[in-house]
Amino acid sequence: MARNDDRRRALADAGLSVLADEGARGLTHRAVDRAAGVPLGTASNYFPSRTALIEGLVGRIGERLAPSAEFVREREGLPPSRDLFAQYLRDIARRLLGERQVAIALFELRLESTRRPEIAELLGRWRREGFAVDVAFNARPGLPGGADEIALFHYAMDGLMLDQLTDPLMPEGPIDDILDALVDRLLPR
Q1: Apex CA 146: angle with CA 142 and CA 148, to 5°?
Q2: Identical fold at 1-60 and 66-189?
Q3: Which residues 6+ apart lie within 8 Å of 52 measured at CB?
Q4: What top-level class would CATH report for the domain 1-60?
Q5: 142 dihedral zone (left: phi>0; alpha: psi -120 to 50; beta)
Q6: Using CA atoms, how far apart are residues 24 and 20, in angstroms rounded to an integer?
Q7: For residue 46, what are the contacts with CB-CB under 8 A and spacing of at least 6?
Q8: Which H or E element spans position 4?
Q9: Mean pLDDT along residues 21-37
Q10: What is the pTM (predicted TM-score) of this model?
Q11: DSSP letter, residue 68
């Protein structure tokens, strides 16, 4: 059967919605079919197993949360600085909060990975690969901070996003101010 990439993406997007709305236990091929408004059995044609479905969702999360080429292009060649680093952090937060369901689905998968080793392996590999890309991206133009600092920012961003997606500790605090404070405290001058 020929694969339709648009339909595959639509099914993955429906799966992300199901995951965000119902959690990992609600994620079934039938639930994805219903959410996508397609005939029953369609999702299993594109994702023949639950593992294949989750792999498809993880790939789609990466696509939907990737920085825009325009954002990156506008900053190419700028001198490396803490401010430029902060711009990238603010963009990450904007993308995560702008794709609320996708971010929630990612947290759901991370929680499910504590119960299912096959998801832990898949998600762990995906996260480590992404981390390596982040470290290389930071090093290439000479932005401040190395692997240790990038890891600290990942830890901080995960906590901040969980806070912002649920019940914020300080709902009136502008997120850019929080991110700027993180940069000030985690990157030495």
Answers
A1: 165
A2: no
A3: none
A4: mainly alpha
A5: left
A6: 8
A7: 3, 7, 8, 11, 56
A8: none
A9: 97
A10: 0.92
A11: P
Burial of 43 (0-12, 13-18, 19+ CB in 10 A): buried
**2 confidence band (pLDDT: 50, 70, 90):** very low
Angle at Cα 29 formed by Cα 26 and Cα 33, nearest 5°? Answer: 100
Helix pair angle (117-139, 147-165), 10° resolution: 120
Residue 1 has pLDDT above 50, yes or no: no
Per-residue pLDDT, 3: 64
Kindly report, residue by residue over 112-146, the tens digit of the pLDDT.
999 999 999 999 999 999 999 999 999 999 999 99
Find, among 8, 179, 10, the residue nearest to 84 by Cα: 179
Ordered by start, the domain boundaries in the chain are 1-60, 66-189
Q: Which residues contact 180 (CB under 8 A, 6 or more apart)?
A: 86
Amino acid at site 146: G
pLDDT, average across residues 142-152: 94
Q: What CATH number has the domain spanning 66-189?
A: 1.10.357.10
